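Sample intake sheet
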Amino acid sequence: MANAKKMWALPGAQLTAPEALLMHGGDPAKLLDLPCPSFLIEHPKGLVLFDTGCNAKIIDDAVGYWGDVAAHLPVKWSKNDTLDKQIEGVGYKPSDVKYVILSHSHLDHSGGLTYFPKAKFIVGAGELRYAYWPDFDRRWAFIFNDFAPTRGYDWLELGQDFDLFGDGALQFLYTPGHTPGECSLLVHLPNQNFLLTGDTVHLRAAIDNEAGMPIDVDPGTASHSIRRVKALRDMHGAKVWITHDPDDWKEHPHRVG
C-alpha cells in the first residue's frame, strides 16, 4: 500500500452552534465554537482537496448570502484565512488542485467550489440532486449560489467506496445518511492514517453514543455510517478527524508528513 506525502488542515470559518443541533441528546444551552476546515493532501498523482468550507461572501454580509440562517450560526472569519489564501500559504495555488472531494453539500462545506473550475469533483451518489432540491425543512442548509456556477464542472458521483489512485493511499468511503451522498476520506500517510469524516459524525460524543444529527435525511443509515466510522477506528487503527469537533481541531497536527 502506498501513502500520500503530506496533509494540511486549513482553517476556515468558525461557527457557533448549540450542541443539540449537532447530535441527538445534545445540550441546547451548550454553545460550541465549530471549526470548518478543508484538508489539502499531496499525492504523487495530484493535489487533492477534501471539502471547501464556507463561501467568503459571508465575511462581509452573512445574512445577505446565507439568509436568516446566519442569525443562528454566528461566524468568525478573516479575509486572511479564505481558502485560496490558505492554499497559497502552504506553497500552492488553487489551480494546482486536481481533485476536489466534497463530503456533502451543506453551506459550511461547499462554499469554495468556484476556486477550482478545472478540477475533477468527486461526490457521493444523490448529493448533487439533493443540493439543488433538498427537502423543504432542510433548505436553509443549502445555498443554491454555491452550486449554480458549477453546473459545467467535471463531476463524478460515486455510490460505493473507491480507491482514488489504485494504490490505497486515498480511499473515498461512501457514508450516507446525514445527506444522501455524505462521504468520508481515509488518508494513508507515512506515519499514521486519518479518517476524515466530513459530517458523517459531528462530535466525539456522537461516536460513542452513535448519535446522529437532528437534520439527518436518513437517521437509520446515518447511524450505520457512524458505526462504520467506529469500526474503522477500532479495527483498522485509523485516527478519526471529525471536521467540526473543537477538540479534534486542537489536538490533531495541522500538517502531517
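Comment: Helices lie at 19-22, 58-66, 83-89, 127-132, 144-147, 204-209, 219-236, 246-251. The longest strand covers residues 38-43.
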